[in-house]
Write a structure and sequence with these properties.
Clathrin_a/b/g-adaptin_app_Ig; GAE domain-containing protein; 3-stranded antiparallel sheet; GAE_dom; single chain; Adaptor_Complx_Large_Subunit; transport
Length: about 160
């Protein structure tokens, strides 16, 4: 049965039998098991500057092709820690955006730690218009305000 799962076949539990009630208690009734088809999307570096890298990974809830959960990871590439770190995003009107709270507001230096954040988008024109997002990242470095901005257009197809 394990080989059937790995080979993409539809596995079954037990062997077919004609005595359903007897087989129900003996455990040999044939029951088809189908695997969920969950599309896989590549992880994408959506923003990189000399001081910061933002990476998105994507998952879709089953049965909701218009919805996407984005798991964002923020990495500080500089030798100085960032305080008061805030990620903001704007999307076109046909997309609904929900930003969950970030895991921290302090981003350690030189990739020694990361901040993570869950972003949920709902594309009301899924299949007709691709995801697009403008981002704004604010933080303090050496007690000075810093601001980075960009636009993300390289979302994988099918989101």
């Amino acid at each position: 049965m394990v080989n059937g799962l790995l080979d993409g076949e539809t596995p079954t539990v037990g062997q077919p039998s004609s005595d359903f009630l007897g087989d129900l208690f003996s455990g040999s009734q044939s029951i088809p098991v189908t695997k969920a088809e969950i599309p896989q999307f590549p992880t994408v570096d959506v923003f990189t500057s000399k001081a910061l890298k933002v990476t998105f990974s994507f998952t879709k809830p089953p049965g909701k092709p218009q919805s996407t959960q984005i798991d964002a990871v923020y990495v500080n590439l500089s030798p100085n820690p960032y305080a008061n770190f805030i990620f903001q995003a704007a999307v076109p009107k046909f997309i609904q955006l929900q930003l969950e709270p970030a895991s921290s507001s302090v981003l350690p230096p030189q990739g020694e730690g990361v901040i993570t954040q869950k972003i949920i988008v709902h594309n009301n024109m899924h299949g007709q218009k691709n995801l697009a997002m403008k981002i704004r990242i604010a933080y303090k470095v050496n007690n000075q305000d810093a601001l980075e901005q960009g636009q993300i257009n390289n979302f994988p197809a099918g989101l």
